[in-house]
Amino acid sequence: MSHAEKTAEFLKDEAKTNWHNETLWWVRSKRDLSSKLIPEWEELRELASSVKNNVMSQLDVYLEQFEQNALANGINVHWAETGEEHNQIVQSILDKHNAQRIVKSKSILTEECHLNEHLEKTGFEVVDTDLGERIVQFAKQPPSHIVLPAIHMKKEEISELFHEHLHTEEGNNDPQYLTEAARNHLREKFLKADIAITGVNFGIAETGGFVVCTNEGNADMGVHLAPVHIACMGIEKLIPRFQDLGIFTRLLARSATGQPITNYTSHFHKPREGQEMHIILVDNGRAKQLGREQFRDSLKCIRCGACMNTCPIYRRSGGYSYGSTVPGPIGSILSPGFDLKKHKSLPFASTLCGSCSDVCPVKINIHEQLYEWRQVIAREGLDDLPKRFSMKIAGQVLASPKLYFTMGKMARFSLKTLPKALINNPLNAWGKQRDLPEPPKESFKEWYKKNRS
Amino acid sequence: MSSKSNILNRIKALKLEATPLPELPTFDHDGDLVARFRQSLEANHVTVVDATDADLTETLQQRLADYSNIYSCIDEVPISTMNPEDLQKDTQLDQVEAVIVRGEVAASENGAIWLPEENVEQRILSFITLHFFVVVQKSNIVANMHQAYARIQNIPGFGLFVAGPSKTADIEQSLVIGAHGPKKMTVVLV
């Protein structure tokens, strides 16, 4: 299904769509307020962008440096070319420890690799511990937003899920009550876990350590209790220097939700005494994307979600309409690199307004890349036929002043006289939710001739 | 060929030209750093109290009246009611109500306080306790994260910037304090 078809599903519940739209805009507004308090905000964005450009230009050097330093710190380092290989590495660690109970904190990478499905198929219990992630896991859904996984759900739905899974009171929709129930349920899981899996926000090449940011403290509750910690990291997550964290910690949370920093910014360099620590470096198409010059920048993303919160399309279509692990504008430039055919409708899920690029803390030119992908898709012949046909006609009409004049006249006449049912016919996607404008009596040229010549 | 060399070779084959790494910035803030630090913490649901080196223990004790399971990681504040061996998964780790630690450098812009693991008996304590107490010297407060990171000379095996109690807004963006970890956090300014 295309993005537009899935969006039609989302839009069926108008009240919920409006709530979704307004709530994300509110998050975007908080981002604005918070960034305006930093006089050097724009300078910070520029710095973050340059640091990440530098990382991308020497990724092999930094990866080797990172591995060397991590090994010296006593961390086991693994490399995975694909999601499948990543999952097998995780499984081999689980097997080695005869582990059964796994707690996981938010990791978009493990979603991308479909780790949960892989492990559950082999009989492991995987518990997502971020509250939003646990909610969508109960609902057997993927996250719909990379920072706010359950933003598509109302508290009534969550209450129902909790009643079913955690035996909370039926109809008690109080977020405080529901969160407390999740806390007690997950506390048990933390205390009994054999292995904790986390994602990584930043890997530091010069020190061989990594940083994980949460507000709930769920990643830390998992890893500091479990005897084994596995951190899964995309190869693009590196930064060169420990001191670079000053730039990124100032940008990340402010861009994401408007808060000045996440409540927990955890820096891991060595396993605790008696603990085993692993890091898996995952490529899964990233090196390929690095080779695409016009799309290389997309790898600079630090996964704050600001582009989603600001996007007029995302806000009104929901995360699931994108059908990709990372939705929204950034997902629409990353996903076609993984599978162009599957994600060919995503670069069109945009008005190209450029708001995504304006809020991006690492200055990715998202809207320009969306436009670039559209051209790739057309060149590959993957655009849909009605659109290609109409664009071809439009091209011919706009290239010939004579034809343009005649077509204009015809359009003004037919819009005025034809019945609405015919104008908003099934081929006219624009007419599905809108009426075409009242046509003017004459063209500008005609008016000008009469009045100014 | 191993996956490692496949990945690295794929990148090397691109022969990308190295772009310059920018110099680290040195932004500053003119205002009263202690006042701004206090403000940042309070905006993030942290209670801030003042103390002196002399009355630190007393100040803390006043705040601990409701708790019976207390663990202090500060030698000069010997008010623990639990022993290190109580803090095991199969004993009373989950019962700990108040943990007291000394914070190092702190950023006024966001209230983040650096806790190297040397300052905490166990890594988990900062997260599993019900009420987290952090003692901060006013002289350790700097303007922002750049300055805070610059002060960290020895990188610990585990280090934490903590800025508030555990929180979530995953249910309809309604803020709830006490998601998995501390439901309360108190910073004592010395």
Secondary structure elements and their pairing?
The complex is a heterodimer of chains A (453) and B (190).
Chain A: H1 3-10, H2 14-36, H3 41-57, H4 59-72, E1 76-80, H5 83-96, E2 101-104, H6 108-112, H7 115-121, E3 125-128, H8 131-138, H9 155-166, H10 175-192, E4 195-198, E5 202-204, E6 209-214, H11 218-223, E7 228-234, E8 238-239, H12 245-256, E9 264-268, E10 276-282, H13 286-290, H14 306-310, H15 312-317, H16 328-338, H17 355-359, H18 366-379, H19 385-399, H20 401-417, H21 420-423, H22 444-452
Helix pairs in contact in A: 2-12, 3-12, 9-10, 16-18, 19-20
Chain B: H1 3-12, H2 33-43, E1 47-50, H3 56-63, E2 70-72, E3 98-102, E4 106-107, E5 113-116, H4 125-128, E6 131-136, E7 141-142, H5 145-151, E8 158-162, E9 167-168, E10 176-177, E11 184-189
Parallel strand pairs in B: 1-11, 2-3, 3-6, 4-7, 6-11
Antiparallel strand pairs in B: 5-8, 9-10
Give an account of the 3D structure.
The complex is a heterodimer of chains A (about 450) and B (about 190). Chain A is of the alpha/beta class and about 450 residues long. Among the domains of chain A are: about 40-285, NagB/RpiA/CoA transferase-like (Rossmann fold, 3-Layer(aba) Sandwich); about 390-450, no CATH class. In chain A, about 50% of the residues lie in helices and about 10% in strands. Chain A has 22 helices and 10 strands. Chain A has helices spanning about 5-10, 15-35, 40-55, 60-70, 85-95, 110, 115-120, 130-140, 155-165, 175-190, 220-225, 245-255, 285-290, 305-310, 310-315, 330-340, 355-360, 365-380, 385-400, 400-415, 420-425, 445-450; strands at about 75-80, 100-105, 125-130, 195-200, 200-205, 210-215, 230-235, 240, 265-270, 275-280. Chain A has a 6-stranded parallel beta sheet with strand order 1-10-7-4-2-3, with helices on both faces. A 4-stranded mixed beta sheet of chain A has the order 8-5-6-9. In chain A, α2 (about 15-35) packs antiparallel against α12 and α9 (about 155-165) crosses α10. The longest helix of chain A has 23 residues, at about 15-35. Chain A is globular. Chain B has 5 helices and 11 strands; from the N terminus they run ααβαββββαββαββββ. Helix content of chain B is about 20%, strand content about 20%. Chain B is α/β, with parallel strands linked by helices and about 190 residues long. Chain B has one domain (about 35-190): NagB/RpiA/CoA transferase-like (Rossmann fold). Chain B has helices spanning about 5-10, 35-45, 55-65, 125-130, 145-150; strands at about 45-50, 70, 100, 105, 115, 130-135, 140, 160, 165-170, 175, 185-190. Chain B has a 5-stranded parallel beta sheet with strand order 1-11-6-3-2, sandwiched between helices. A two-stranded parallel sheet of chain B has the order 4-7. Chain B has a two-stranded antiparallel sheet with strand order 5-8. The relative contact order of chain B is 0.19. The radius of gyration of chain B is 20 Å and the shape is globular. The model of chain B has no long low-confidence stretch (mean pLDDT about 95). Classes of the chains: A alpha/beta (about 450), B alpha/beta (about 190).
